[in-house]
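Reopening this one. Same input as before:
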Amino acid sequence: MTTLIAFQGPDFAILGADSQVTDGDKRIISPSTPKIVKLKKYLLAVSGDCRPGDILTYNWTPPAYDGTNPVTFMGRKIIPSIIAAFKLQGFDYTKEGISYSYLLAFAGNIFEIGDDLSVTQSEDGLYGVGSGSAYALGALAGLVPNVGRAEILKALAIAAKYDINTAKPFQIEVQRV
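Same output, byte for byte:
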């Protein structure tokens, strides 16, 4: 699995990820294939099945944010563009057993996207996806609103200590508004 965590501050978004890929009983540390990618003015963090994440990382062009309500923009523009990218690459995102989650940041907003392509936002600005996310979120919960790069790194280290599917090196990306 993976550990992805994020915090949405008043004028920034910060995302953190580990570098371990788990394939059955095989553990792969893969810093050359980052879990957080920059796509134009977006940050995308991927978790779960590799194929849908690869499609978005290498074959998806997100629509330019038009300044409308971010939730509405997600429903009207982002999700349809993700569906189109999946279809173009021959990926059946409705197939039973597919499992993935993403964190997407744009214009300082963070959204969690589930494997049913549902979209959610957190009321406290904290986000976590993957097998070690509960540990990382627990480490960050008492620190809101003072979450920054150092706190994200510490939370990822705690997740790596307690979750067998989370490992260094860690990646941190910050998006400023």
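So the earlier flakiness isn't reproducible anymore. For the record, The longest strand covers residues 42-48.
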